[in-house]
Amino acid sequence: MSISIAIVEDLEAVRNGLKDFISLSTDFLVVGVFKTGEEALAELPHITPDIVIMDINLPGMNGIECIRRVKDKSPGTQFMMFTVYENDEKVFEALKAGASGYLLKNTGLLEIVESVKELHEGGSPMSANIARKIVNLVRDTGKETAFMDVLSPREKEILKLLAKGLLYKEISHQLQITTGTVRIHIHKIYEKLHVQNRTEAINKAFGK
Amino acid sequence: MSISIAIVEDLEAVRNGLKDFISLSTDFLVVGVFKTGEEALAELPHITPDIVIMDINLPGMNGIECIRRVKDKSPGTQFMMFTVYENDEKVFEALKAGASGYLLKNTGLLEIVESVKELHEGGSPMSANIARKIVNLVRDTGKETAFMDVLSPREKEILKLLAKGLLYKEISHQLQITTGTVRIHIHKIYEKLHVQNRTEAINKAFGK
DNA sequence: GAGGGAGTATTACGAAAGTTATATTGGATC
DNA sequence: GATCCAATATAACTTTCGTAATACTCCCTC
Hints:
- The first copy, chain A, is an alpha/beta fold.
- Chain A has helices at residues 12-24, 37-47, 63-73, 88-97, 109-120, 128-140, 153-163, 168-175, 179-193, 198-205, and strands at residues 3-8, 28-34, 51-54, 78-83, 101-104.
- The model of chain A has no long low-confidence stretch (mean pLDDT 95).
- Chain A has a five-stranded parallel beta sheet with strand order 2-1-3-4-5, with helices on both faces.
- The interface between A and B is large, with 38 and 38 residues.
């Protein structure tokens, strides 16, 4: 049983190159080729291929938005990004949208084919520096932002308790100081972070 | 210039196998071999190898804790996990601690060597299903938790505004309803989530 | 040893948040 | 047609939060 593939790519040369090369292998069957996200969105839910190779920079709807919408209708289909973008935001967005693999356009045809196989077997093939970006993303999740640096150790301690949803009096009890002092600390925290309330402070200190 | 490698692994057979095979290549120089995290922690900061291949399950200090501590002292050293663990928590912890690559112990020696090279060149080599786990981790960051399901659409809408730090009156203005109504909605949200205030609700609805 | 910052504290006030009770409307269910 | 629930609203009330001004101590630096 061969792996069914669709390709969404606006550049004719790239599109045909991919299609022709992939078609050489009996492991694959190219079941759809689209120039725009709109076309792909209209057809993919009916074709339900195993894998979609998706460009990001398309005329009209971009590839990420296209994944988001197709994923809704055909949750079984897996997406391989194929793009020149290697900035953090695009990578992050693509994964959030539901992409499981991410290859840069300088990837060789042979490696692309290997990666599609790996994707189909439940892996998440990515170009080397994309993988590193993703690892760094995970490493930094929930990490304190640079804004925390302007706070004193005591202020950081209090902000962390504040972030847990504790009342002033609970904080004061835990730290063995008066609620008045807690109030002062928190007021200074707000000043330093340029915010007006607890929630804004938490968002600012711990990246949204 | 060859890549300097250290190995931390308690099982003698694995340890020696790695060391001997890696030493075969002139690209690498094994500069340290340790049986425990404690030994590694004592020596690694002085050796400062390019790469450390690190087991997780060690007697005494585990490999993740070991990375955390060594990373503090030698930020330039990169770590490759080499372990049987493939559960989400261990993978997540390892990356948080500062590991940049993650191989399972069923990986072939040749692939290990290739992965170490890739790591050294700034990539993040991982076994296929580990990569998928990490991608899924990123996909799910900041996602609403199951608690959100008990809320009505309107309540979800209000909770999202609440999470941005808006005042009741700002929310009421934005939704064109009275602050009294906002108050009621929020009160019901708290009831349904079994919490007493805004911050607790946010933490519960959007996984910490 | 004078100055500055961090941490502590007190008092006072106004704004915002959260609780409780009651009520109307409209849509869905039975 | 009756019942239930979501969404809306009003009113009265308590608690918590946030702002402001002032002050003392300790520690570090110049």
